[in-house]
């Protein structure tokens, strides 16, 4: 039976439907999902608008109980849902389970945040006058989420939106609707009133665009590509809507001569080609100083060649398939661009045959790379990592900061001096020391600089800035 959209507390058939195909096994149809049109997206927005006054007035305990219900069920079903996630997106099973776990933790965190009602009461600079600052829901919130984290990102957008009293319309990626549908089904049983949370599945040019242009959507949170993000931003800003965006990354990882080589290799490979490189925080630019460069390159190749790309549910797989045929072709095109630019493919980059037909690709290490090469400057979003050589730390820092994208960055070193200097002088929004650039906590701010992000930070208490609007009141007792 086709999985339907969820509008105003009811499951609604779409104007069409699409099959969700397992990228590990193209013969495996995960399920069939309804496709909404602009009219149904408009219905979802209207339902969210109608439900806003009631949910806005709900007690903090009511909000907390609903979110805690969702978090509890996600954690209880993490193995089952992790398997579903791995089938639809292609993450290996351990990562699928890990992502569902993270989503459950996020809902649990914001259940508690709903109870921590923040505000300020301060004396005015005028005699006898008091001032208070309160934080109110921003209103109806549209969420546009990507395919690479099909439940974690919807969770870390939806949970704070609901915790702070907003109503929600979620449009998930077309490639990965299953986990958004499951999250919606759990929310439908959480006790929230009809219209508070709505799911409309369908193409971005139709459903997403409706969210962007609607005057009844007060705020929109988007995660996706830089190019799409620019269009979304311009559209929402043109009508004075509130906008938050997380977009691309080309994260650098500096490896200095004094680094622990085993840890450095683990960071370089674990933070890049693992997860099939389909993370915006992946450290795809490795920048090594001369004393360790050759040893690091050899070790990276050796470690990468030992990795097995295969079916996401196969315990022998270290990484799963690329998400679809289009992304696989993008990866191959960038490898050819690298060759044409004079870089050398040290290993990997080939299509891999397994027992099932899928989008399998061996992870690739590129040597002889330069920071001005196109494949180094543009986000590939595949299991591809490039190694660059720097003269010294200062040169490495300059290379690291020479990018239009600045989401995350890292350094491997035993030097406290260099570690602290890098933390202070990296242009990115997040910095890792002796850790991969991919991998963050849910209780602290997430976000980048330059073209990687726009607007307020996501996650942790920082999410309040986007999902609420402050109001300052003055009182003179008479």
Automatic annotation (TrEMBL):
Family according to the record: Belongs to the aldehyde dehydrogenase family.
Keyword Transmembrane helix: no
UniProt keywords, alphabetically: Oxidoreductase
Naturally occurring in which organism (per UniProt): Roseovarius halotolerans
EC number: 1.2.1.5
PANTHER family: ALDEHYDE DEHYDROGENASE-RELATED
Name this polypeptide is given: Aldehyde dehydrogenase, thermostable
Aldehyde dehydrogenase domain mapped to chain residues: 11-472
GO MF, one example: aldehyde dehydrogenase [NAD(P)+] activity
Enzyme class of the recorded protein, top EC level: oxidoreductase
Coiled coil segments of this chain: none
Pfam families in alphabetical order: Aldedh
